[in-house]
Amino acid sequence: MPGQNTAPPEPPRQRGYLRSAVVALGLGAILFTVGAVGLSPDAPSATGATTPSGASGTVDRTDAVEALRERVRRLPGDAPAWASLGMAYVQRARATADPATYDRAEDALSRSLELQPAGNHQAETAMGALAAARHDFPRALDWAEKATAANPFSASAHGVLADAHTQLGRYDESYRAVQRMVDLRPDSASYARASYTWELRGDRRRARELMSRSLKAAATPTDRSFARTHLALLALESGEHRTALREAGAGLREAPQDSALLEVRARAHTALGHHRQAVSDYTAALAIAPLPHYLLGLGELHQSLRRPEQAEAQYAVLRAQETIREANGGPADVDAILFEADHGDPRKAVTMARTTLAARPFIAVHDAYAWALHRAGRNTEALGQADQALALGTRSALFHYHRGMIHHALRRTAPAQQDLRRALSIDPRFHPLHAPAADSALSRIDDTA
């Protein structure tokens, strides 16, 4: 197969996975983080029609929730309709970052399970997606296992199972779940997760090929937007900023209010030095969904441009969000940990990361924990976490920058040079603050080596 010798070696138990007739071109498969397409349960739609097997099941009409609410008003004993309503609320909450909508989702799904407590794989799948959206991955895994036991042929259930395994650091299990999803239903959702598995292992070529398949197979505007977003991200994180700009622009022509596309275009503009356009896109994305990584991205862009008041305005909102999270007792996300490490109290960031890692041992959490430990001056411990973050071979400029700075703090000159050069070779403009810091650190190391 072309380019096979460039792929990262797979663990022995992985060999033979992702080789079905559906993926016969050697493109392989992986998985996506929460928010991926295709999490809709295999249930009747708002109109009563069954979701086509090649579609994700995502309803793109703005009145989707209202249509489903009307259906359950007319048919209050329709358990699959309640499951569909619950999933529609999950999808709406992801788009708006409204926690109250998750509560409505849980109410609808609980009603579905009351009506049909046994064999209700639609509601169980949606409950798993809800738990994953709330970053409760052990609970997401429990629900996904129930759903796949109730219906081993549900591709959507295997998608939720794959997402949960990934975030719990069970990568072999996630690859198997994705493969099963591809075998059951080779559509936009399964190809998207397949793309992510190769991205995790550092094979961006295969990841792009599979995400292009996801775009081609997309049956709804939502699925097309998702694929465009991740094609743009794959380009952006490979240093191909103009390609990222084109992909995001193509997506936004169809979905101008998609906050994820606006955010990735803002990052591309930032890398290209189009600061006015970047601020405009970040601001538009935040007006739709005030997500932490949007706030952090805009704040750090302002900071890099020496606009402390504008940066602090974003950071103040982040701190307020963190106060709410702490009050609710939920785990910290990666962005909150990195924000606290760089712009708050690194010792607090260490505590946050340790707690999150216990429930979510994913590579990005290992990286955030490594950086928090470094910022707190605990570099020997930090190095072990940074190594775990890169254990899969993930091609991340930020991860390599973090490990390079840890090596530098430990006076490990050669490894520091290697990681910092690797970060800048992946993308010399990977971050408005950290890329210049990487370049400066590497220059100092080279001068003293």
TrEMBL record:
Intervals holding TPR repeats: 155-188, 397-430
GO biological-process terms attached to the record: negative regulation of DNA-templated transcription
Entry keyword set: Membrane, TPR repeat, Transmembrane, Transmembrane helix
Phylogenetic classification of the source organism: Bacteria, Bacillati, Actinomycetota, Actinomycetes, Kitasatosporales
PROSITE patterns cross-referenced by the UniProt entry: TPR
Listed name of the protein: Tetratricopeptide repeat protein
Organism encoding this protein: Streptomyces fulvorobeus
Keyword flag rRNA processing: no
Annotated TM spans: 21-39
Cross-referenced Pfam families: TPR_16, TPR_8
Keyword Transport belongs to the record: no
